[in-house]
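Sequence only, no structure available. Ideas?
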Amino acid sequence: MNMLINTTNQKIVTHIITGLSTGGAEMMLYNLLSRVERAKFKPVVVSLMDRGTLGDRILALDIPVYSLGMQPGMLPTPNILWKLIHTLRELQPNLIQGWMYHGNLAAQFASRFFSPKVPVIWGIHHSIAQLDAEKQMTQVIIKLSAKISHLPKKVVFVSQTSRAQHEAIGYSQHNSCVIPNGFDTTLFQPAWETRTQIRSTLGLATDTLLIGLFCRYHPMKDHANFLHAAALLSKNYPNVHFLLAGTDVTPTNQELQQLILNLGLTQQVHLLGERSDIPQLMSALDIATLASAYGEAFPLVVGEAMACGVPCVVTDVGDAKWIVGDTGKVIPPKNSQALADAWQELIALGTTARTALGKAARARIQENFALDTVVAQYQALYA
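Reply:
I predicted one. Tokens follow.
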């Protein structure tokens, strides 16, 4: 077998992740890889599925990416597991880090084929409000993971809420810790000139008030809640516009388009799809929103907006309330009236007060959730 021999003192850390689409966990992995001390650690990424949208960006960091071809929504087949073991035996990692439930199980399984066993770290980026609300397969994986959660060296939760929820259903309390997601405040920062540029591109006046929702199209993200709130707000503020971006958030999404049409919002809602200029779009907003109904642990999009100096309205899911602190509004999930009311309160503050709130939001991110601090916590686990 052609093993890759590490001739330096670097520790080889292999990251196993379900896939590399643009999501919170995937972006946190990318952010971590972009800042890890390469003199000490040699990172490698194994995607159980494909390279997705982030694979090439990771390769551009001069970090190898292996993809195994697992089908979405499926468990790994024996062939996929064999490819995983074969790949890891070539890589000879000093440590394996799993990302999300599938990645964690795959990492734990593969570690058993090394002697001595390679230490494993799990990463959990999901919260569980109601276990029976999860998909059947996800429930099975969560329950199985609970039974073997004492095996990894450490279980890293990105959310205090998620940690408590998982420990309540049987996850080990003896090897867990919380490392929140971190934010690159040099990438996500206020950029006042983009406000005019984005509005001009959309054909809007420079003083148009923009409210944003940036996330993939998925039931947990509750686009319907956002749009129903938009319809309510528009009764009093007909000139407000709503900017939506993310995977499948496009004009070709018939379900989404039909809802917008039914609510009479076709002239005020802009569907931008998946974008690579999120920092610029984010900094153009007046108010950012997290409308999720469930499932969030530590939503990256909230911290990214705050780092851009944009005040947020968030549903009380995962650690969103902790992230926002007193710099925004927190409302119950699945309550469109509460969401519309919170937007209205921020609009009523006026530009000067909203700007001050945005500055406080950015300061909170810099003080509590800076990316370099988070990377240092991960590296301490690797040592």
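The CA atoms of residues 327 and 357 lie 6 Å apart.
Hope that gets you unstuck.
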